[in-house]
Amino acid sequence: MTNCVHDHSRWGNGDQIGAAGHFLTPEKTLFALKKVKQGRIIDLSHTIEMGAPFMAPNQTPYIISSSATAKNSMKVREQMGAKNRVGANLERIEMTTHVGTHIDSLGHFSIGEHLYGGHTIEDSVGDWGLLNLGIENVPPIISRGICLDVSGLDGGDHLEAGRAVTTEDLKRAYDTAEINPQKGDIVCLNTGWGKYFMSNNEKYLAGEPGLDLNAAQWLTKQDTIAIGADNMAVEVLPGTNHPEIMMPVHQHCLAEAGVHLVENLNLSELIQNGVSEFCLIMLPIKLKGATGCPVRPIAVI
Prior knowledge:
- 23% of the residues lie in helices and 20% in strands.
- The longest helix is centred in the middle third of the chain and has 11 residues, at 167-177.
- It is of the alpha/beta class.
- It is globular, with a radius of gyration of 20 Å.
- It folds into 2 domains: 6-49 and 97-300, Putative cyclase (Glucose Oxidase, domain 1), CATH 3.50.30; 63-94, no CATH class.
- It has 9 helices and 15 strands.
- The strands form 4 sheets. A 9-stranded mixed β-sheet has the order 1-15-13-7-9-11-12-4-14. A two-stranded antiparallel sheet has the order 2-3.
- A hairpin with a 2-residue loop joins strand 5 and strand 6.
C-alpha cells in the first residue's frame, strides 16, 4: 500500500527522533536564522477556543471551565485570615492534543501493528499514553520554513474537498516560488481551505484538499522534517482510493518516514504578504506519552 519500509527504518530499529532529530543541525539552524531580515513575526497558529473544529468521535471538543475564581478564592482566603483581599483565577481544560494548530508525534499512526522505528503497538501503547514515540521526543525546531501556495491551481481562491495535490503540483509551486527543497525544511501547504476554520466548521470537517500519497513520498525523499497544511489532516480527504485505503499519508509520514505532520495552520498572513521562505520556530510541548500537542509556530522574516 505504501511500499512499506517499517521493518527497516532509515535510522535503525529503536529510533524515536525521526527526521527532525537527525536533520536539525546547528548549521541548519544558523542557515534559517540568517533568513531573518526584518525582525517581523507572523503567527501561524489559530486560537484554540470553545467551538474549534474537531473530528468526532476520536477527538473531543476543547472545553475550559473555572476551577477557582477571584471572587470565591478571595472569600476562602479571608476565612483563613488573609487581610489583603487576594483573589486568584484558575481553570481546567479538557481537550485532545489534536484540536487547533498541533503537531503529530511519530507514535500517532501505525501500519498494522507496526509503528515508526521498529516499535510495535504491543510494546509502545500503554493505558496511560505512549511508552515510545511520544511527543516529548520531538526537539525544539528552528529551521527553514517553506510556504507553497497551491490554492489557485483550479482558478479559485481555494481548492475543493477531495482535490489531491500531486507531486507535479508541488514541483510547479516550488518553481513559482523560485525555491529548491533542502534537507531539514518544514513545508507548509496553503490550499486555501483554512478560510473555513471557525467560519464554517461543518464544511471544514466534511473533507479537504491535500496531499496524495505520491506527493507526500516525494516530500519525504527531499529530507523534509515536517509537513504542515491549512487543513485538518494535511492529506486529501476523502482519499484517492477511499474507502479501501484510508489515511495513507499519515501512515507513510509518521510510521515509515519519521516525518511529523502539523495540522490546522493559519497561513493567510504569509500568503497576503507573498512570503514563501522564512525562519520557522516551533517548540512542541513535552507532554510525555502524548500522540501530539498544540503548537504556536511562528515565521520570522
